[in-house]
Amino acid sequence: MTELIQLDKQLEGLQSWQLVAFSAALSERMFPNYQLFSRLVGFGDHQQLRGILDGVWNQLAGTGARINAEVQLDNVEANIPNLDEFDMYGAMPAYDAAVALYSTLTCLLEGDAAEAAGVANLSHECVANFIEVTAANDQMSDEELVRFINTHDLMLDEDAFREELLERLQAQGKADAAFIRDLRTLAENEGVSNIGISGDDS
């Protein structure tokens, strides 16, 4: 949690486009969680959300038309699963991914560091919950559980990814197509999400 408090200060020093790129990269890394859930249960239009996230990347790179973020907020909201309606774990990371995309669009509109920090927190909590559900022992004390989560490979990967994102963005004064393309490739992680799944898994 100390790291995330420190993150708030780092994000406050970024330009608006850097905040959007930070949010988009985290959303990209979470997207397979939504894609898999959508395919397995038939909820939501993952292709529509894919197109919206593509639009954010294209706008950042200056290679496509500017997206109407206000309109797309409504489209994303319509695709956010209601957790009360799904009695399965997979709905939670799908929910996190959709909300992260919603916050990314809000960041595009407002350039708000708090929105970018919210996306980082969503991704962090998504990983923490996955580790607790799939790998933790019921007999662990609260302190042992926190230590187990924080030292798990998936969380170490999450922290390393977030740090690399920040380092790249802080070193880049302005957005250009090549930089954004490389950032997106990093975030795509060969199609593997922040919790280690592929959207094409069956």
Automatic annotation (TrEMBL):
Listed Pfam families: DUF416
Species this chain originates from: Marinobacterium zhoushanense
Protein name: DUF416 family protein
Gene3D superfamilies the UniProt entry points to: YP_001051499.1 domain like
Superkingdom to which the source organism belongs: Bacteria
